[in-house]
Structures are given as C-alpha cells and as structure tokens.
Design a protein that fits this description.
The protein is an alpha+beta fold and 240 residues long. A hairpin with a 7-residue loop joins strand 5 and strand 6. 19% of the residues lie in helices and 31% in strands. It has a domain of 149 residues: Pnp Oxidase, Chain A, CATH 2.30.110.10. The longest helix is centred in the middle third of the chain and has 15 residues. Strands 1, 2, 3, 4, 5, 6, 7, 8, 9 and 10 form a ten-stranded antiparallel β-sheet that branches. The chain is globular, with a radius of gyration of 21 Å.
Length: 240
C-alpha cells in the first residue's frame, strides 16, 4: 500500500534510515528530497537476490510522493524486487570538490538520499502508462507527446515499480573546507571549493533522419540540470 505524504511534511526516518555517521549533514526538509530527485537522472536500486546484495543503476521518475522505476519483465533482479521484499534506492548529486589545508579534511559537496520501502508492481495498463509517461518526461521532457505510445507488446514486456517516498534519509554537505584552526593559521597553500556543473552538449542527430530535420526546441533548449541547484545558495553551509 502506498503511503501518501505532501512536500510540507518533514522527513521522519525510521530506525533503518536515521543518519548516524555525519548526522550533522542530515536534513529533514522533504522538499530537499524532491529537489534532489528532480535534478538527477540515475538512481541505484539495491535488492537482495538469492541471498546476495545487488545494486542496479537505472532511470526513474517522480510523481508527487511516488518514485517509479522500470525494466524488462525478463530481468530476474527486477522481478525479485517486485515480490514484496525490502528495497532501497540511492541518489547522489555531486556539487563540488572541497580542497582543504589537510588531506584529512578534503571532502566533497553533495546532496544525497536513500529511500527504503517495498516496491509495488503496477499491472493495470493505465497505471503503467502513467508511470512510463512520468519516467519519459523526467528523462526527456516533451517526448511523450511527440513519440509513439508503447504498444501492448511493449507494455507486457515492461515491468514498472512504484516506491513510496516515505521512509528516506537526506544528507547535504555544502560550503568551505572544515579545517582545524591550527592549519588555518600555519598552512600557506590554497583551500576552497571547485564546483562541478553539468551541461548538455550539441545534439547529435540520428543518421537515419531525413536531411534538413530540425532539432526540436525541447532538445536544443533543454534547461541545464545545474539550474535546479540555485535553491541551495540560500541554505546555511553544512561542512561537517
């Protein structure tokens, strides 16, 4: 059963999602979880199959408080995660490399989350289509209305999982190096942050396109993923 929450309800992690190491970086703002998911494209799905842990990188899409993941119905790993067993999903956005005055205090600025729960397999065709639309529009905005819809055969070959964004932990590290006072006073080398930004390259058309086919605006003028990071600028640094 999916548990519906809203953006203004703070994160209240259970025992398995409480941040213990580096707990000063823990965040309770659910909107920050949604911001992270909306600004990244790849997650890592963790499951147990045949008694062994497996981590699968995959695309995803978010609709409100539900995370959708998909794959082939022939994937044993995806089938295992759809049988009611506990799963976890991890997403990390790297924002910068922190250069400190000591090797020990070198670090990275990042925003990360781990979601725990039991995934639900969507079987009703309209629910699967909705989830696939969410996935498509997250990965390639504007494509659902400009491409062919999945056929019955394609739907039958696709497994779609829904995971509630209820039990989750979020960590944030931002700001300058957290150097020791003694190192600040005595070390003469440079310290600071080297930001990391993602940007889209030049679109590369399919060689089978007719000559003169224009690149659609949804591709050529797609906003940079880094545009979502501006909301962090007004947050207090989390350096430890």
């Amino acid at each position: 059963m999916l548990i519906h929450v809203t953006e203004d309800i703070p994160l209240s992690p259970t025992d398995r999602s409480v941040v213990r190491r580096g707990n000063r970086k823990a965040q309770t703002d659910r909107a920050l979880l949604y911001e992270l998911l909306d600004s990244c494209l790849i997650c890592h799905l963790g499951i147990i199959r045949d008694g062994a842990p497996i981590v699968l990188p995959t695309g995803y899409g978010r609709d409100g408080d539900t995370l959708y993941l998909h794959g082939s119905t022939g994937s044993a790993s995806l089938v295992a995660s759809s049988q009611g067993a506990p799963v976890s999903v991890a997403v990390t956005r790297l924002d910068g490399i922190v250069y400190a005055r000591s090797a020990f205090h070198h670090s990275m600025n990042y925003l990360s989350a781990v979601v725990h729960g039991r995934a639900t397999t969507l079987t009703e065709p309209s629910a699967k289509l909705h989830a696939l639309r969410v996935l498509t529009e997250h990965i390639a905005p504007g494509s659902w209305e400009n491409t062919r819809r999945p056929s019955r055969k394609e739907l039958a070959a696709t497994s779609v999982l829904a995971l509630p964004l209820y039990d989750a932990s979020v960590k944030l590290r931002s700001g300058a190096p957290n150097d020791e006072d003694e190192d600040v006073e005595t070390h003469q080398g440079w310290a600071g942050v080297l930001p990391i930004q993602q940007h889209w390259g030049t679109p590369e058309p399919c060689p089978l396109l007719p000559d003169g086919t224009l690149v659609p605006d949804r591709v050529s003028n797609r906003p940079a993923l880094s545009d979502r990071r501006q909301e962090l600028d007004n947050r207090p640094p989390q350096t430890r």
